[in-house]
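FIELD: query
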Amino acid sequence: MGRRGDGRADEGAGLTRFTTIGLLAVLLAGVGVYILREKPEVYERVRYPLRYEQIVTGHAKNYDLEPHLVAAVIYQESKFDADAVSSSGAVGLMQLLPATAQGIADRTGGSGWHERDLVDPELNVRYGSWYLRHLLDKYGDEELALAAYNAGQTNVDRWRARGVGIQFPETRHYVERVRELKEIYARAYSSELGLS
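FIELD: result
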């Protein structure tokens, strides 16, 4: 009889552990659903970091841009990695092609420009902000400006001439994602970006 009792005690302890683990799993799943649904500020700050905020806010102000838009473009382009280089050769925080950066330098009076300068956060965000302002002025529309930032002005000009919307699925996703990130950065970093 002693053996039977010991076996039942072991079964009871195992059942209690199983129940505890199950309750913890349900609790963690509930917390996960809450975080995904509500996206509290703490989660957003961990998931979407903000770096170089003085550079971002300074150039946003200088070029009359929303700082949360600049932060959103930087996150989407490089996730705030100043040394990022894409497969197409775009460089730095705002992923500028060297030819684009050279054109910006020429138009803004830059001299002695070198491709390696694009890994400098200050210069990269200055040029990227200038370019974003140029696109906003040219198209008068954030969606088209972001589409041109991603797919190039030639493609956007061609789509406009044909009277069609954004034709590349990747570019449509890019525009939607930057707009989503813009709202996230406005919520999560309102004081850092000077929005409050």
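FIELD: remark
The two ends are 73 Å apart (CA to CA).
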